[in-house]
Amino acid sequence: MVLKLKIIKQELQIEECLKQRLEFICEFAKVTPTFINGSIRKLEKTNINKKLWKCCKLWYKYIKRFKRQEVIMEYIDIFDYNNNPTGEIKEKTQAHEDGNFHRTAHVWIMNDKKELLLQKRSATKKSHPNFWDISGAGHIRAGETVIEGAIRELKEELGVEVKEEDLQYIATIKSTKNPKNMEFQYVYLLNCNKEIEEYIFEDNEVSEVKYVFYKDLEKMVEEKAEGLLIHEEEYKYLFKYIRKQNIEIRKCTINDVDEIYNIQNIIIENFEQEEKGYFLPFKKETYLRILNDPINDGEIYGTFIDNKMIAWIFLSVSNRMKELKQMIPNLNGSCADIDGVVVLPKYRGYGLQKTLVKYLEERAREKGISNIIAEVTFGNVYSLRNLKDLGYEEQTWYQKDKNIKRYILLKKLGETENG
Predict the structure, then answer these.
(1) DSSP state of 188
(2) Which ranges in 246-283 belong to alpha helices (H)?
């Protein structure tokens, strides 16, 4: 008969020094500890239950003594440079000292007002005491999953109880700036509308908390505000994720013409020499004509964050069917052109090109359009890959002028309600 014994709060492998302590206690009680994969998971029960019970009591007395001295050690799993588990487990301080990779969870709490919760690190913290930091963060203990560790840290630091589905994954960051703190940081967002006074600081690691509007925090990060811990790469991922949640796509009107024209000019100014042919600019008057007469000239759809345009796409009903049928013999049904997808440099990497193209396809289906044509300048590998990912197939190419060659891609939208 086997009696399972929880050695400490969590079931995890322990270092040689603790194993020796338990072996000594077991020897005193004349019972045999059983090791499984380096862990003491159970004790073989002898006929003398009293001795076994005494062994357990001695062990817990030993643990309690260490708790009073606040020297309970925390054990973490060790990972290689590529985030693969090595199978090794170390006490946290030793892992830091040895420069071993390990995992941490960083959870940002945001309410419906788009305010992010900052925690003030306790004055007793060894690193960065009294600094404002991430809402909730901590090391992933040995044997824990990242999600389990994130949930535990939120409960311990802030008294917040959550489920796995409540956590929105943002990114995993490899942090190597500090050779004594080599981490794979798993970053999450949690939507939570607790009031400040509802947060409970259970483990004395946090002294206070406050909410800061995400744009104000972004400014604080840019200015490297005093008393704020700066996690540059993490903040980039965080603010990018929040902005993506605020994205709105709508049909543009003449009130948007200045922003459309300005974005076009910013894009052209940022082009490298070899990229000059990627986009053919229009005059402002042309955009005004398009917006005033969308039925004949097409439609422009803009992407907005907080009512500020950051990208746009131009859909035009093709007036060159005869030319297209000569280049694409199997082209049947109505056809529309993507005449430009323009994204501000700051917002590249948000996946906006694909998002806008998919949105445009839905508008084309509503209009009964059967096919969409897209042109991509030779060398524009990024746009070519994105369109192919969305199901566009390369049909042919043509010489736009002496210096510019362009692929023609086609996507068949299939049957529509109108045709």
Answers:
(1) E
(2) 257-270
3-state secondary structure (DSSP) of residue 5: coil
Output the average pLDDT for the chain.
82
Torsion, Cα of 90, 93, 99, 104 (10° steps): 80
Which tokens in the block code for residue 322? 């005869």
Which backbone phi and psi does 347 adopt, to 5 degrees? -110, 15
Handedness of CA 171, 114, 156, 91 (dihedral sign): positive
Contact in structure between 338 and 314 (CB atoms under 8 Å) = yes
Give the pair of three-digit tokens for residue 138. 């901590």
Give the HSE-up count for residue 373: Cα atoms under 13 Å, Cβ half-sphere.
Answer: 26
Q: What angle do CA 354, 379, 393 make, to 5 degrees?
A: 50
Q: Distance (Å, rounded) from C-alpha 95 to C-alpha 143? A: 16
User: What integer pLDDT is reported at residue 323 of this predicted model?
Assistant: 80
Bridge partners of 42, per DSSP, are 4, 34
Would you tell me how many other CB atoms lie within 10 Å of the CB of residue 7? 19
pLDDT tens for 347-392 read 888 899 999 999 999 988 988 889 999 989 888 898 999 999 999 9
Looking only at Cα atoms, what is the longest distance across the chain? 96
Which tokens hold the place of 130?
């009294």
Non-local (6+) Cβ contacts of 72 within 8 A are: 8, 63, 66
Which residue do the tokens 């524009």 mark? 380
Rounded Cα distance between 414 and 371, Å, is 8
> What span, in angstroms and rounded, lies between the C-alpha atoms of 194 and 155?
14
Rounded to the nearest angstrom, the gap between the alpha carbon of residue 384 and the centroid of all alpha carbons in its chain is: 25
